[in-house]
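Summary for the steering committee. The consortium agreed at its last meeting that each partner would contribute one worked example illustrating the joint modelling workflow. Our contribution is presented below. We chose a case with several input lines so that the handling of multiple components could be demonstrated. No manual editing was applied between input and output; the record is shown as generated.
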Amino acid sequence: MTMDASAPVRGPHRLGGAARFALWSRRLGWRHAVMWLVVAFAIFPVLFVVSAALNPLGTLSSAQLWPTGASLDNAVELFENTPFTTWYGNSLFFALSNATVTVLLSALAAYAFSRMRFKGRRVGLIGLLVIQMFPQFLAIVAIYLMFSNIGEYYPAIGFDTRWGLLLVYLGGALSINTWLMKGFFDTVPKELDESAQMDGASHAQVFFRIMLPLVTPVLAIVGLLVFISTINEFLMASVFLRDTDAKTLGLGLYQLVASQRNANFGMFAVGAVMLSLPTLAVFWFLQRYITEGLTSGAVKG
Amino acid sequence: MRFRSAPAATGIAAIVLMATACGGGGGDEGGETAAEDTLVIWSDPERADAIQGAAEEFAEANGITVDVQGLAFDDIQGDLLNAHQAGNAPDVFIGAHDWTGNLVRNGAVQPVELPEDRAAGVEETALEALSFDGRLFGVPYSQENIFLMRNTELVPDAPETFEELVEIGTELKEEGETSEVLAMAVGQEGEPFRMNALFTSAGGYLFGQDDTGTWDPSDLGVGSDESIAAMEKIAEYGEAGEGVLRRSIDTENDAVLFYEEDAPFFIAGPWNIGDANESGVDYGISPIPGFEEGGPASPYIGYHAFFVTEGSSNSALAQEFVTNYVTDPDFILSLYEADPRTPVQTEALESVSADDPNIAAIAEAGADGMPMPSIPEMGETWEPLGQAQAQALAGEDVREAMEAAHNTIAEQIGG
Amino acid sequence: MTVDTDSAGAPRKGAPARPPLPGGRFTGDGSIGGRLLKIALLGLFTALGVWAVLPLYVAGNWWGIGLVVAVVALVYWVYLSGRTVPAKYLLPGVLFLTAFQILPVLYTMSTSVTNLSDGHRGDKEQAIAAIEAFSVTRDPDSPEYVLTVATTGDPATGELAFLLTDGRGNAHVGTDEGLHDLPRAEIDPSSGKVTEAFGYTILTPTEVNARSDELQEFAVPTDSGAGIRSSGLSSAFEGSATRVYDEDCDCVTDTESGVVYHADDERGAFYSEEGQRLAQGWQVGVGLDNFGRFLLNPTFASSFFSILLWNIAFAASVTFLVFVVGLAVALTLHVPRLRGKTFYRILVVLPYAMSSLAMYLLWRDMFNTDFGLFNRMLGLQVDWLGDAWSARTAVILANVWLGYPYMFLVATGALQAIPRELGQAAQIDGAGPWQAFRHVTLPLLMVAMTPILIATFAFNFNNFNAVWLISRGGPFSPENPTAGATDLLITYTYRLAFNEATAQYGYAAALSVMIFLIVSVISVVSLSRSKALQEVDR
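What follows is the complete predicted structure of the assembly.
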């Protein structure tokens, strides 16, 4: 990635300073201005969370940006009183494994929906959309009954296990993400895989060798979306993870503020900031795939 | 375009492996915890370690292991009922006394029989609060109630009446010492839990009580003339009146107002003590004052108790734990050290009060308190009543708001 | 940004000439390696099936075994038959979807015709057992004993005997035949427990605990008709059950008050003549009563339609605004050379990376009348969350902030699929940048974005936290305390069905089924009118 070297506009070297600025502002300058506005809109609430993280009195409020006494008390407390690193590791485990498997399962299904015509295709696609609309908190009773039974026969995937929770997460692997992927697969010209099949490639070869590399951006996007939603998830996690050491950070944080009368917003804010870091790291890592994936030639086919 | 997924996939795989490795250990044996001779206890995360430590001795003496699992306190009741329905509940759990009615009607808890000498050591009102139909269902260990916290630098002496409190606070506000009279959380949705002290002092009531103190859900008092008159009196201090009680003060900012010395008075709870000490404000604790011509202000008292789950496969040990161990002063003291709450066991309370004057002051502030009604119908009152109280303070018609709340509650409880 | 356009075209047509890819190992059908891998994976799956069957076989659960065998057979058929190519790709995801989404949802829907709720969770036997067990009261003035549990036989199976020490230090033995003196017993003076008794094996705590279920049933009969029951490991008391179930009349009799409670299998509880019910009930089918309960309620009908209207408006405006903001940001950054693009991207995505729980709480605080950021900064005294329209604005604003990064991400990805040359070509043909965007880029973009927009709409339609954590559905008017100005159908459902302590699952399921039908119809209709579904039909 050498984008910084190539900017700003190099061409108009011979122009005078003012003209060069005018050209720059017409082409790129306004973009910077807009982006500064958007960035301001994006981060100002986040600054208050950072402020709360530093404020030794555990409150989360927008009354003051500058905390009364900045200190790392909250962070120290969070590290000392909770198995923070274990929680962090658990969160990463769920987010990464769910994102990886979901991307694979979803891409497989999207390939079928995009490239094949079969009975039930339309129903399947609409069904995927519609099933998401049932409120999840109601299904908790069913999940309880189901995993109590499962746990009786297979303790390894019952309650209080990470595998059980991962299974439930994978139940959501086919979702609107599959739609997103299918839309992207559709933009890859059919001629490409047809000619490969003429050359004797199997459908699996077409999928793994031709399609997947061409849809890298959407794989990265879906991976990121699943990563974010998993790392922030706490409703299902609270049903499954009871042992202190098995919890995810999202769940641990939720439990810090769940009790109305005993909320500790200071530690919560520290955790929230820490939890956003891997997300940003993953985004930073993936963004090159998101923006560089399909080049302009693809649609021409 | 070069295919860049290869390093990406490798990177992801590496991180997954690493995460599995660091997170490992705990999860794999997780499934075995349901084994016999392990007493599973649910607690809130704050007390989980303390209970684990204190129960270790019990476990050793009886040749078993104890596994304390942490859930958010407010989630325990709902999760327990779901788990119990699915046959996956813990053996013992910690809960609030006002859950008793609902737990009993779901058949989720076992009755407990305390030996006489054990029962004698515990406050009688606490045992009554955990009883349903005359049977004890949980063993109380601590209590909590709200109280008045004042900035002793600004207000050396505790006010005797609410009128006096407002007078002192207003004076300080006019002098520019503070910007608020009183930090009492109301919020957009109302806070009936905190409001109850003033509400009872002004003569309002929620449910009627018979001679033995049993709550009568068919006698709902929200829309009664007494309750409406009480809210009208309180509303005089609301946004349309003195402006002391306002919806903009809520549980997120009430404490800050006091810690930053913007408010000389604060309706606080035991959970605020830790931060109050850290804030450096000199504070004093006293009972919430009632109205001059009203009755005593009764804050709600909440008891925390240990319950035994019905259908527990370890019920003999679980019963033994709650009857003979939870009532033991040493156990209560070790829990107190982890999470300072006012014990209800007389001996433990005395020993704690001697060391910590706050505990004694909080207990005194709760002397006029009333245990929160533990009948299931109570759960239906919070939201409608809170709304009505918030509307009353906002300056809306009190009678209309209270009667609407009354009808909503009555409809929900089918009374 | 350097894009490897030079190598872009080359490897595409000649896929086999590529260097081995990470996916190459899975290539399946075509190659020998693929075939071997397929066999290995099927073998692994079979092993998993065997592992799954074993505990079921031990427990004799034939239904479970049938299910496992069916799933394994399905997998074999799909992957060995040549006619099931689409299924080969769909099956893994669909299996998870069916097991952990569709089945729980179907179960939940099925509870909409039952009275599943607090007080009606278990079956009738459980309710009866609880009623009887909970009515055991200690007889006043009866003696209290220190208990030692013993047996005359094997510790695990032998007949139970209670060795009881009374207040005076005398030992007795109680079996299911009655209470007798136990003269030759050694008693620990401090605890009062019997440490040794001739003819009896004293059980250790774990041995007693292993027989917990028996112990709960066990009572030593006494003359008064009551029984001596255990309480824990070391105490016993004399008490009797005051409520007894009689199968013949299907009723419970309270022996103290003489009131008879008859089982009502329609309502799932015991009722007395006067209509008093016992607290413990059971789950019964109630047909369409749950639906009738809200459909026939006049206040429900009026609040329902105003809530539905706002709900649609909320979901539509949030979806529209996040789309506009997200797309605008994506377009602003969609130029080849822009310094600090990565920096901007990361900061723009920040709202999405933050825990939404924290952000909702913060936004709620920013709208506080006296202390909130907005009023302080703008010098206003607006009662944001106290007035219907400002509360609605507040809720929408907060959700746009939380939601636009998602649209930004998706739009950024979708824009990559649209060749920039297309727009440029249009501009050369004389169209302005806006026209070029409007007529060339946007239509192409919409093909990929429409399903996402519909999904965003559906997500926001049911976005519980979005409203609950900011306004709790409020503000409420005194005329109608159950329906607030910002209530969505889902928060309204939650308030009606889960009021703090009482969970009415059956009722909530009925409400959800209706909402589910409404949302599904809206989505399917809007989908079928869009290009996206023409795509589907193609």
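Residues 1-12, 293-301 of chain A have pLDDT under 50 and may be disordered. Chain A is about 70% helix and 0% strand.
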